[in-house]
Specification:
Number of strands of chain A: 9
Shape of chain A: globular
Oligomer: heterodimer
Order of helices and strands of chain B: HHEEHEEEEHEEE
Radius of gyration of chain B: 19 Å
Helix content of chain B: 10-25%
Largest sheet of chain B: 5 strands, mixed
Number of helices of chain A: 16
Structural class of chain A: alpha+beta
Distance between the termini of chain B: 28 Å
Largest interface: A-B, 57 and 53 residues
Strand order of the largest sheet of chain B: 1-2-5-4-3
Structural class of chain B: alpha/beta
Strand content of chain A: 5-15%
Radius of gyration of chain A: 23 Å
Helix content of chain A: 40-55%
Shape of chain B: elongated
Strand order of the largest sheet of chain A: 1-2-3-4
Chain lengths: 422, 197
């Protein structure tokens, strides 16, 4: 194996290299500008406002950020390497743990990618339940955004409100799968199992109550002059810049681009549901907040439509080479026992080929690029987490802002480090 | 490329799938704007990729982004696939999205590993700044060198990490462990790669 020459230090901020190094002991002065000295400021990885283990190396002139370098990788766990030694089924729990605020969304993206490779279409009931759970996850993720973002800016109540409602979503997760967060409920070929009878009334009750809750959040923040003062015209990103930086999801929509994969490239039957795509006009922190709050309302609309159309039926495909046979068949059918044994020990073998499947995650386009060599394990599985591009765009967004505003801008991007580091 | 082929002619006459149409349009535009840029198609329909000549990659990318018929403005990701036994060894893969056409396209650049250096392709940061972080990741995890990248350094692994973990000859679960009295144990080829082969 070839070894590269030692790379430069992680905190060697690009673009600052031309500055004359005037390091003064005890002051962290790293260079001079015509206006004054530059100081290096290390923000994170334990900083509470970096929402995970993001480290930012800032070079500040007084209070103003002149250069920024996001340093990620603290949560890097080598999932992509692990995928190559796990069967297609074993990989599902890893997908939960990438974007840990929306585990079901990750399950769905992965399952759809493998199903695309297999050429399988899951039954209607499975699709509806998938949509309900994924939209609830999206709401849960946006609630965490709302709570932590508002907390960063000093509005503590929103945090408690947000976590209260999220708890109800986690209870629904627990009801269907037995697990609150890392559910692994969405499987290749359908679902882990059918939902219990109390699922439907619980979702309906949540949807009914939640509409009023969103009104509460909006009453707290949307017209609050302090909130508007703090977030208006801050961290503005133009639509062209956002696209060029590969930013997608609510952050792109806040810049005025109505791009949503659920509508533009529908999957899982999203084309059947009626929903609007909230867009912003200015692309600032306030618009990013507002777009997410409005998206929660649209998600509730989708959930209600899906639960109305939920009809009895199977929740897995009828292909015994891919999904496990029902438990009761194992008692009577030798075929079922063989299928069960082969699937558990070896897994299934999709045809050789490669697919890309992008789904609309709570943070933007979550993509799975899967290369199969017709064995029971992925040859290569590349995960495109939306947070990765959001973090790459941070220097562009915060340069020129004061340090206190960095916190507001980071919060408004709503990245998850598990998603970017994988 | 072993499977270089266009979309099968008979299916094209009957009913062209949306993805095949996207590829056909992209190829027509690129053949017009950058002759010789597209070498062929790769993969199984409908999920095919355009194979691009590495020398013309940047020109191809500019055309994909700027041509009004295509507008592949949104960079989704860029990565690489290590085909250890194959020559050329690596495929560098670019996935792009067009908001105008509401679809994605995949470019593939086969790259050989030269005897005296890392495999290298031109960087497309000048076209899409959002590809910069993905190129850093491909450099970090697969050791692909992107010529012209302004800031090519590791992004996920520690700065002093040796090797590129996503290469197929990189032993997983065999990292050397340091002991104060006995030096370090190198990764052994006897370490199982796991997964119950």
């Amino acid at each position: 194996m070839k070894v590269k020459e030692a790379p430069p230090r992680a905190d060697d901020v690009s673009g600052a290299a031309h500055l004359e190094n005037t390091y003064v002991e005890g002051l962290n002065l790293v260079g001079d500008t015509p206006e004054g000295p530059l100081m290096e400021l290390n923000m994170g990885p334990q900083h509470p406002s970096t929402h995970g283990v993001l480290r930012l190396v800032l070079r500040v002139e007084g209070e103003v950020v002149r250069y920024a370098d996001p340093d990620i990788g603290y949560l890097h766990t080598g999932f992509e390497k692990d995928f190559e030694r796990l069967t297609y089924h074993q990989a599902i729990p890893l997908t939960d743990r990438m974007d840990y605020l929306s585990p079901l969304g990750n399950n769905l993206g992965y399952a759809l990618a493998v199903e695309k490779l297999l050429g399988e279409q899951v039954p209607d009931r499975a699709e509806r339940i998938r949509v309900i759970l994924v939209e609830l996850s999206r709401i849960g993720s946006h609630l965490i955004f709302l709570g932590t973002h508002a907390l960063d800016l000093g509005a503590q109540s929103a945090f408690l409100y947000g976590w209260r409602e999220r708890e109800k979503i986690l209870e629904i997760n627990e009801m269907v799968s037995g697990v609150r967060m890392m559910t692994s409920f969405i499987r290749v070929g359908g679902l882990m199992g059918d939902v219990p009878p109390e699922f439907e009334p619980a979702v309906r009750r949540f949807a009914r109550e939640f509409r009023a809750r969103v009104d509460d959040y909006e009453a707290m923040l949307s017209d609050n002059p302090l909130w508007i003062d703090r977030t208006r015209d801050l961290g503005v990103v133009s639509a062209d810049d956002a696209i060029g930086w590969g930013v997608s999801g609510p952050t792109l929509r806040a810049s005025g681009i109505a791009h949503d994969l659920r509508r533009d490239n529908p999957y899982s039957g999203y084309e059947d549901y009626e929903f609007d795509i909230p867009v912003g006009t200015r692309g600032d922190v306030y618009d990013r907040y507002l777009v997410r709050v409005r998206e929660m309302r649209e998600s509730i609309r989708i959930v209600e439509q899906a639960i109305d159309r939920l009809a009895p039926g199977p929740v897995v495909i009828d292909n015994r080479k891919v999904v496990l046979p029902p438990r009761h068949e194992l008692d009577t059918s030798m075929e079922a026992v063989i299928h069960h044994f082969k699937l558990v020990t070896e897994g299934f073998r999709p045809p050789a080929g490669e697919v890309y499947m992008g789904v609309e995650g709570p943070r933007g386009e979550l993509g799975f690029f899967l290369v199969s060599d017709a064995t029971n394990k992925p040859y290569r599985l590349k995960v495109r987490g939306p947070s990765f591009n959001l973090i790459a765009a941070i220097p562009h967004l915060i340069t020129g802002h004061i340090v206190a505003d960095v916190v507001a801008i980071l919060g408004s991007l709503d990245f998850v480090l598990g998603d970017s580091d994988r | 490329m072993s499977e270089e082929q266009g979309p099968p002619a008979d299916t094209e006459v009957e009913a062209e799938s949306p993805q095949a149409a996207v590829l056909r349009v992209a190829r027509e535009v690129l053949d017009e704007r950058v002759p010789g840029g597209v070498v062929g198609f790769d993969g199984v329909p409908p999920e095919q990729a355009l194979v691009i000549n590495p020398d013309l990659l940047v020109a191809v990318c500019h055309s994909l982004k700027e041509d009004d018929r295509l507008r592949y403005q949104l960079p989704i990701f860029c990565s690489a696939v290590d085909h250890l036994e194959r020559d050329p060894r690596f495929d560098v893969v670019y996935q792009l999205r067009s908001l105008k056409l509401k679809g994605t396209i995949r470019l593939k650049v086969p790259v050989a590993e030269p005897m005296d250096g890392p495999p290298s392709v031109p960087s497309v940061v000048a076209v899409w700044p959002g590809m910069g972080c993905h190129e850093r990741e491909a450099y970090d995890l697969l050791g692909i060198h992107f010529e012209g990248h302004p800031d090519l350094r590791r992004i996920l692994m520690p700065v002093d990490w040796e090797g590129h973990p996503l290469r197929k000859d990189y032993v997983s679960f065999g990292e050397p462990v340091k002991f104060s009295d006995r030096g370090s144990f190198p990764p052994s080829s006897a370490v199982p790669t796991g997964g119950g082969q």
